[in-house]
Structure to design on (269 residues):
């Protein structure tokens, strides 16, 4: 992809994130529906993860992130967010984050970095608006939970950290195919293949994560369940919650289109 085409896709992505920010700004004070709390946390986690990645990208360019950007929009009457819409928003941001991570941004101009700053400011605004919802728990106190086929792991923002370990991969794709199976069955029992388990172990080791036997066993059991439950056209991808310690892996579903290098095609509205 040419640099000009990449920048055009970046501008389009920025407009989509701005539109999402305007959506929440116009519904400031809305609550999540009774069955949508986990979807709201999933969305907050997806936005926070992409925000962290953008901050790291901006800092590596010698620039500083901007303040949250609150768009001026007319407020809607008080209402509730439904689970399905919040889930679509979370999937959209996870796909967009995956596309960003797959691009080569070296040598971007200061104008392009400005686009990153705008998007990061919109995301910061989205995060604050979501977390202000009365029915949404404070992400800094939420324990590991399961939602939308992914573990939602939240790390306090003031935790001590260090740079990403050199050579650590940004993500691990766990796609169960005939050519490279992730799952095998023996005497009626399904389990992860040795190759899949080794890939997971290598990913954790690259991030300097040393799991106990029990913790690793539980992670592999969850991965088995999530791989077999992947929606059509999607695969399981493991990433890290933040660009600083304490590192914690979290799996989520990503569309094959995005993994192929294409930005999300469908807006989540």
């Amino acid at each position: 992809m040419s640099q000009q085409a990449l920048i055009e896709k970046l501008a389009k992505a920025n407009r989509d994130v701005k539109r999402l920010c305007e959506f929440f700004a116009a519904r400031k004070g809305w609550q999540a529906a009774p069955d949508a709390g986990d979807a709201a946390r999933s969305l907050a986690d997806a936005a926070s993860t992409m925000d962290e990645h953008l901050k790291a990208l901006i800092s590596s360019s010698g620039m500083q992130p901007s303040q949250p950007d609150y768009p001026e929009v007319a407020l809607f009457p008080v209402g509730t967010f439904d689970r399905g819409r919040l889930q679509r928003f979370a999937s959209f941001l996870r796909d967009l984050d995956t596309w960003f991570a797959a691009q080569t941004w070296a040598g971007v101009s200061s104008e392009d970095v400005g686009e990153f700053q705008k998007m990061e400011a919109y995301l910061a605004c989205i995060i604050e608006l979501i977390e202000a919802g009365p029915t949404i728990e404070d992400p800094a106190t939420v324990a590991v939970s399961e939602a939308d086929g992914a573990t939602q792991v939240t790390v306090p923002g003031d935790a001590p950290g260090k740079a990403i370990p050199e050579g650590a991969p940004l993500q691990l794709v766990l796609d169960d195919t005939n050519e490279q199976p992730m799952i095998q069955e023996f005497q009626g029992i399904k389990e992860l293949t040795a190759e899949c388990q080794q890939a997971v172990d290598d990913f954790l080791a690259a991030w300097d994560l040393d799991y106990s036997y029990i913790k690793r066993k539980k992670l592999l059991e969850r991965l088995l369940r999530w791989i077999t439950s992947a929606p059509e056209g999607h695969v399981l991808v493991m990433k890290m919650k933040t660009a600083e310690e304490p590192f914690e892996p979290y799996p989520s579903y990503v569309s094959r289109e995005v993994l192929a290098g294409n930005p999300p095609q469908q807006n989540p509205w």
